[in-house]
């Protein structure tokens, strides 16, 4: 069982997937920082100095040591923008890779139709003779 696991874990697809997950996680952090630190501040300024991470609907105010209960829709909006940017980047990457694959693949020549058998030729001649008699 240990040998089978080793063979599975060392296969190329598993290693490629692991690298993809690690790079994807790092890319997600970069996009979150880009959205939170570069994109959202100018949008907040254009909307009158609003900080999106502070936007929330308070359900219950803080009482004593109990924290306030709020729906943080500003953070949700920021997460949606993160997702749209990541999805767009992945779309562009996949489209680029697919277009590169199409260039590399040479168009296959169409296969020639097989020669008809003697029976098919004979049946065709009989059909043609019957057509001319009618």
UniProtKB/TrEMBL annotation:
Subcellular location(s) of the protein: Cell inner membrane; Cell membrane
InterPro entries according to UniProt: Mechanosensitive_channel_CS, MS_channel, MSC/AndL, MscL_channel
Entry's transmembrane regions: 76-94
Membrane topology of the entry: Multi-pass membrane protein
GO cellular component labels: plasma membrane
Similarity remark: Belongs to the MscL family.
Function of the protein: Channel that opens in response to stretch forces in the membrane lipid bilayer. May participate in the regulation of osmotic pressure changes within the cell.
Protein name: Large-conductance mechanosensitive channel
